[in-house]
Design a protein that fits this description.
about 0% strand, elongated, mainly alpha
């Protein structure tokens, strides 16, 4: 009986080995790259997404700062309409410090391109007046 069991095990194991044997030739490797194949967002869609984000009526201070932080991480200076929406969100939250900080960040993001910041301030002037927000220059923060 034991001999029969041993013979059966040997046959089963040799059958399994034959089933999992690798082919003698080389194995073909398929390379897959994980590039994004999604559609590219246009500038208008990007602007609309951020304006919608900052125009949320129930936005809280954390979401405002998270949005600004994410926006600053991009390699661009936000369009005035995005900044306008962010400043209006600051006003809804009565967060004057964040509003001024946004303007400081815009100036910093403009970097060596000295014509960008004055253009942004020119475009935002009606909003700044309406909301009662002073620029960092008006507050003397550019001299510190």
């Amino acid at each position: 009986m034991q001999a029969a069991a041993a013979l059966l095990r040997r046959c089963a194991v040799s059958g399994l080995r034959a089933a999992v044997r690798r082919p003698a030739g080389p194995i073909a490797v398929l390379h897959a790259r994980c590039y994004s194949h999604g559609s590219q967002e246009s500038d208008e869609e990007f602007d609309a997404r951020w304006v919608t984000y900052f125009n949320k009526p129930d936005i809280d201070a954390w979401e405002l700062r998270k949005g600004i932080n994410t926006l600053v991480g991009y390699d661009l200076v936000p369009e005035p309409k995005i900044i306008d929406a962010a400043l209006r969100a600051c006003r809804r939250l009565n967060d004057f410090a964040t509003a001024v900080r946004i303007l400081e960040v815009v100036k910093d993001k403009a970097g060596p391109h000295k014509e960008i910041y004055p253009y942004v301030i020119q475009e935002l002037r009606p909003t700044l007046s309406e909301l009662g927000i002073s620029t960092p220059e008006e507050l003397g923060l550019d001299k510190a």
